[in-house]
Specification:
Largest sheet of chain A: 9 strands, mixed
Mean pLDDT of chain A: 95
Low-confidence stretches of chain A: none
Strand order of the largest sheet of chain A: 5-4-1-8-9-10-11-12-13
Strand content of chain A: 15-25%
Oligomer: homodimer
Shape of chain A: globular
């Protein structure tokens, strides 16, 4: 089947979130890694989302995604309720506290890829059960580049399955605490060294308000977060970081083989991709849910990326 | 009196520290902001230290400082015991916990500048009582550039005196929590804006393992910390950051009037100065006390600074 260039397949959650932050409260707003990732990535590339929602999920939102050229044919609508996450943040906005998680229809989720999804050149496995992540990888033909995310829950609960997934992944994105947990190290350099040996040649360590650190085969890049005036809600910052980062790589047409034979050039493109991620995340946190991303335009992205580059220029 | 070019006068503490960190324990080792600052600055400029020690302070260390061309004629040796700080760090190495402070001879400290000190072109007021900081400023003739540090204790305890000092300061160096406390803001941009209005046109906000953020009249610079394999003891990182930063500015011969008329060039030089500070701090934390700085050579500094620049290159 004919495949759009630069197309990214992602598998992740579509959810309702109820969130309390120092800036206020939002009840039953739209969320989920699949949403944040795909909206962010859609500024750069076409996106296909695979996921599951209940009958209570607003059709208008699926419609809105479609209008952005996000392919929602992989989102199953099944009887029952949509995944619901309740969380809060205290003054330290870098860490979410989960108050409750109702998996609902997500509990029986078994990603089934259609013929179009199977030929996706770029794949992003959002933070879900590593067994499901592998099941997705088993169904895709021969992606050019695979990235993935995970979290403490899987690192602790399914370490072997996660490590099996990691062997098939090019880029892993984790926050600092997760990287320490996965590696058993408390130092970021030693943690990165161990994790890169598990499979992903590129490791992105997210550090909340401090930005991100990237380890590639040729070097280390330390990207600052773009400082914003008011952080309303950090939810989805990591997924929208990954969305912009993958979108940037897909737009550049990177593939694994080229990356291996051009490690220095790959490193340079990755640096820009990481900054794109930091910029996207900075917009995400300016409002609840992905409301800021929904009214964001590309020229705002470009302007902020230029400003961020100035902030690290020597 | 003839004055060396690039000479920096600093007033601060010379102390014994007893420290516990996750890496180990050090009892009654040499410390104090005056020590850390002047050793770090001496890689770039000549330094004059004003401070006080008790009769228990090792003469061999004063001798060692002198051999590094650090002028110790402003260090009074008085009857009694040297200032003693007892502190510890848990896994979060970014914040020290003070277990006890014995001011000892420091309690009666009244800085008296000799004729040589009075004509110092560069002044760094380390973290001491803002009343003493002002007393030093009252005694210097017309410095080219004045920088200062402070802490929660003075921000809360002597806010008016501190604000009076700040009106006479060009560069203020604080950590993030202190900047929030001083400004009454919880956001770094709003905090910086308020603090810059208090006097210092340049504000450096230290962020521990995440580096430093600098606000100048023309922009924002976000400098990463240099990541090291093992952090042994973070004590003195901030003072050695300030030492290298001021040393770099003194070596460059910057003065306030030139800075005002060349804001863009000043900003560029400051960025390099901040990186020099980050690099120096990264050596400091590799061992207890300033032991790593005592065996550091300039070529190690240059090499690490180059590596750090690569880590933020776009």
């Amino acid at each position: 089947m004919a495949q759009q260039p630069f197309s990214i397949l992602t598998v992740g959650s579509l959810a309702f979130d109820s969130i309390q932050t120092p800036a206020g409260k939002a009840d039953l707003v739209l969320g989920g890694s699949g949403n944040y990732f795909s909206i962010a990535a859609s500024f750069y590339a076409s996106v296909e989302v695979v996921g599951v929602v209940g009958e209570d999920f607003p059709k208008s939102h699926l419609q809105w995604l479609s209008e952005r050229k996000i392919d929602v044919s992989g989102i199953q609508v099944v009887p029952g309720k949509t995944f619901h996450w309740v969380g809060s943040y205290d003054q330290d906005l870098n860490e979410a506290k989960t108050l409750s998680t109702a998996l609902n229809v997500f509990e029986q989720f078994n990603p089934q890829l259609n013929s179009k999804h199977r030929v996706a050149p770029y794949v992003f496995l959002a933070n879900i059960d590593p067994v499901l992540q592998m099941r997705v990888l088993d169904q895709v033909d021969s992606p050019r580049l695979v990235a993935c995310d995970s979290m403490n829950f899987w690192i602790t609960g399914k370490p072997n399955e996660l490590k099996e997934t990691l062997r098939r992944v090019d880029i892993l994105s984790l926050n600092q605490g997760e990287a320490f947990l996965l590696s058993g190290e408390k130092n970021i350099l030693r943690a990165a060294e161990k994790i890169q040996k598990m499979g992903p040649s590129v490791l992105m360590i997210k550090r909340g308000e401090y930005g991100a650190m990237m380890f590639t085969p040729t070097g280390v890049f330390i990207a600052p977060a773009f400082p914003v005036n008011t952080v309303v809600d950090p939810t989805g910052a990591g997924d929208s970081f990954a969305g912009a980062m993958m979108g940037y790589l897909a737009e550049a047409g990177i593939d694994r083989e080229w990356a291996k034979s051009h490690p220095e050039k790959f490193d340079q493109i990755l640096r820009r991709a990481v900054l794109a991620g930091c910029v996207m995340a900075s917009f995400t946190v300016e409002d609840f849910s992905f409301q800021r991303l929904m009214r964001l335009n590309k020229s705002e992205l470009v302007t902020r990326q230029k400003t961020l580059v100035q902030m690290l220029q020597i």
